[in-house]
Amino acid sequence: MKTYLRFGVLVAAIIGTLAWLAASGINESKTYYKTISELKQLPASESGKRMRVTGDVVPGSIKRDGERVHFQIFEKEHNQTLNVVYMGKDPLPDTFRDSAQAMADGKLQQDGSFHANSIAAKCPSKYEAAPGKPAQQPLNPAKS
What we know:
By secondary structure, the chain is of the alpha+beta class. 26% of the residues lie in helices and 32% in strands. It has three helices and seven strands.
């Protein structure tokens, strides 16, 4: 009987440890998507949570300071800007430049700046049709 009790306690401890690791991993990997105006309205208690924010890079705002990159993103809908500091290990994407749409993943700081550990960017002018020209048709259009 003692052997079964020890085995049961060991199994319960292993299952409990695995459940705790799974729950903490889920909480750590949660990312909330917020707009700049929503970030600015968050209470101070929310500042340590991982979040994503998107906006257009303000022209002339990209400043490199050693391993850090400082820039601002702009939200057109609410006319708001946000200071972003990128401290990630990966190089910035090639499409990250003035007026590009950028998505920053990181945490809002107490001072109101956003410290990002990853940046994704796209340059909308590179993928849109030129003014006055129709969008390119697919290579194999379906026949009617």
